[in-house]
Write a structure and sequence with these properties.
Layout (H helix, E strand, L loop, with lengths): L2 E11 L5 E11 L3 E5 L6 H8 L7 E6 L2 E2 L4 H6 L1 E4 L11 H11 L6 H10 L15 H13 L5 E5 L7 H16 L3 E5 L3 H7 L2 E6 L2 E7 H8 L2 E7 L15 E3 L5 E6 L8 H10 L4 E8 L2 H12 L1
Parallel strand pairs: 3-8, 3-9, 6-7, 7-8
Antiparallel strand pairs: 1-2, 1-4, 4-5, 9-10, 11-13, 11-14, 12-13
Helix pairs in contact: 3-5
């Protein structure tokens, strides 16, 4: 697929000696939703800030749609919209005034009909004349997104876009992001809400301690690293797992009424048939069974703990 952002050997070390990023190599595909996951302090915001021209890298190169971010920063910046974590805005101005200013800042000619559509899509049209200081936190978050879209960027960075936003508004923003992707906008998302990445992302990158550990298609990542579990509800509770079953990855529920068998669904032989045969041999009957698979959150926690 065609890359719209190419990052090569990127590093950032601050004057204090702190290395925020080290040897980052990444290509972001045109028109995809890319989710960047990582704990606090992992380097997510630093990476975004470098691409957007806010922070200067210490090493490596970044190009945006074929333009170098340092030597051709005007071209790269005009292609990018950024929604930061902070809610800092020119609070005494109206929503409409901020939209017009943001568009003019990039040398775009006035286009009231486009700005109106953006505000309507974000359910802000009725607030167009309101002072930003009078808006709720969720409304201010939407204003930040509207401002980032005012100059019609090809790339939109969303840095924790739904932090502090209620569940209903969060789902509304997800729909808006999907619509933007459908219109051809490339979305790069950082989030602490794992379900947000699981719901929306095409690909996922996991960053920890300034290093990019995993970049993978979401479904491939979950298939590769996700584990499946088979839960057998027993006819009669057990106090302990019989020693004859010790070779199986089994756990006994705290009340003794269920056995949980963890297996890799990608393996040719899951061991389930052998387990069921041995249970029958030992007279351990079950009245129900169901399978489940790891969530993205469990995979993420495991990946970060492995890198720690």
């Amino acid at each position: 697929m065609e890359s719209i952002i190419s990052i090569s050997d990127l590093g950032k070390t601050y004057a204090s000696g702190l290395t925020a990023l080290s040897d980052i190599n990444l290509d972001i595909h045109r028109g995809e939703i890319f989710a960047l996951l990582g704990p606090n302090g992992a380097g997510k915001t630093t990476l975004i800030s470098i691409i957007c021209g806010i922070v200067t890298p210490s090493a490596g190169t970044v190009s945006v749609d074929g333009h170098d971010i340092l030597t051709d920063y005007r071209a790269t910046r005009s292609k990018i919209g950024l929604v930061p974590q902070e809610l800092a805005t020119a609070t005494f101005e109206s929503v409409w005034a901020q939209m017009e200013f943001s568009r003019g800042l990039f040398g775009k000619p006035p286009n009231p009909s486009f700005l109106e559509q953006v505000l309507r899509d974000l359910s802000l049209w009725d607030k167009r004349d309101a002072k930003i200081m009078t808006l709720s936190g969720g409304m201010k978050r939407r204003v930040l997104i509207a401002k980032a879209l005012a100059h019609e960027p090809q790339i939109l960075f969303l840095d924790e876009p739904t932090a502090g936003v209620d569940v209903e508004l969060r789902h509304g923003m997800w729909e808006m992001v999907r619509a933007l992707r459908a219109s051809g906008v490339t979305i790069i998302l950082t989030t602490h809400y794992i379900e947000e990445a699981e719901e929306m992302a095409d690909r996922i990158g996991v960053i920890n301690e300034g290093k990019l550990g995993v970049v993978e298609d979401k479904n491939v990542l979950m298939n590769k690293l996700g584990k499946k579990q088979l839960t057998l509800t027993l006819q009669y509770p057990l106090e302990l797992i019989p020693t004859e079953l010790a070779g199986h990855p089994l756990e006994l529920a705290s009340d003794g009424h269920a056995l949980v068998y963890t297996f890799d669904a990608q393996q040719e032989h899951t061991g389930i048939a052998e387990l069921l045969r041995q249970l029958d041999q030992h007279g351990i009957g079950f009245k129900d069974l169901h399978s489940s698979e790891s969530s993205l959150e469990e995979i993420f926690v495991n990946l970060v703990s492995e890198k720690a």
